[in-house]
């Protein structure tokens, strides 16, 4: 027979579930409110009648946003940046983490290079030298200015090298006995066995590129080259719907600054919300397996 839990254990478990469910609802509440505002009529939002359910449901705000070339262009730039930037991040992370995961007998300078990367994570040259280096390399106002400065995520490298060090050394030794070199061992053994950790780091890199807005504002010369997060940080905050749609009373009843901003914010978060469920099952196991080794 299954062992009955004591009343104190049942009470403690009930408190934990209640607390965690409450925290989850608090985290979801802002997103649900933004979604409700984006689907509501302007008059209902202005009157403060919208909480967590649309009032006078309408898709006019999304139609208005979809017809804005600047918003669509910024989305395409963010998609391109996230795709290329994540590929660059993951490739360099794998290529750096693999040799640094070896013992000192196999790679005598391992500790030296490891501390160089750790030092770069703890200390930086500052904003002005960072900008001057990018400008001196001729990367300003280009997509590579958003990718190359952060091409090596040191925190991800540390997580992955710890994961690599946790894999059985016998796998590598047997591969060497069969005639495989380091390159073949990396791509045929280490990478396939590291799927949970790689999926976690891919999610980190993808979210980082998608949400980054400061570098776009600093490094892009014109708003036409802004990624989506930079566009939302500047254009949406300063947007005046009335100046865009004039005196069209019917449109003003359906669209306002609040509804249009809510629609753009939700559309900006939607890609990450769609991608995350497919990688979430790897998230906890990847973090755990990559963080328990020295």
TrEMBL record:
PROSITE patterns: ABC_TM1. Pfam families: BPD_transp_1. It is found in: Cell membrane. Residues 75-276 form the ABC transmembrane type-1 domain. GO terms for cellular component: plasma membrane. InterPro entries: MetI-like, MetI-like_sf. It is a multi-pass membrane protein. The chain crosses the membrane at residues 71-100, 112-131, 143-164, 185-210, 262-279. The keyword Oxidoreductase does not apply. Gene3D superfamilies: MetI-like. GO terms for biological process: transmembrane transport. Belongs to the binding-protein-dependent transport system permease family. This is Carbohydrate ABC transporter permease. It comes from Cohnella zeiphila.
């Amino acid at each position: 027979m299954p062992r009955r839990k004591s009343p104190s254990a049942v009470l403690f478990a009930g408190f934990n579930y209640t607390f965690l469910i409450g925290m989850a609802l608090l985290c979801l509440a802002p997103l649900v409110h933004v979604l409700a505002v984006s689907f509501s009529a302007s008059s209902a939002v202005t009157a403060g009648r919208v909480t967590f359910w649309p009032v006078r449901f309408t898709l006019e705000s999304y139609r208005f946003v979809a017809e804005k070339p600047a918003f669509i262009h910024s989305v395409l730039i963010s998609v391109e940046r996230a795709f290329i930037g994540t590929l660059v991040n993951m490739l360099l992370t794998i290529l750096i983490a693999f040799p640094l995961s070896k013992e000192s007998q196999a790679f005598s300078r391992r500790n030296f290079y490891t501390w160089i990367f750790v030092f770069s994570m703890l200390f930086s040259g500052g904003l002005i030298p960072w900008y001057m280096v990018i400008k001196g390399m001729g990367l300003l106002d280009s997509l590579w200015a958003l990718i190359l400065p952060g091409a090596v995520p040191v925190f991800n490298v540390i997580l992955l090298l710890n994961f690599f060090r946790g894999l059985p050394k016998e796998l590598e030794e047997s591969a060497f006995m069969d005639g495989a070199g380091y390159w073949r061992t990396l791509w045929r053994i280490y990478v396939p066995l590291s799927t949970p950790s790689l999926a976690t780091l891919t999610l980190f890199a993808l979210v980082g590129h998608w949400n980054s807005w400061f570098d776009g504002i600093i490094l892009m010369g014109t708003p036409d080259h802004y990624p989506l997060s930079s566009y939302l940080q500047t254009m949406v905050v300063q947007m005046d719907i009335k100046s865009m749609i004039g005196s069209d009373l019917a449109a003003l009843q359906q669209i306002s600054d609040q509804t249009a901003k809510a629609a753009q914010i939700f559309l900006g978060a939607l890609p990450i919300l769609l991608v995350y469920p497919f990688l979430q099952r790897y998230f906890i196991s990847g973090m755990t397996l990559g963080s328990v080794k020295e």
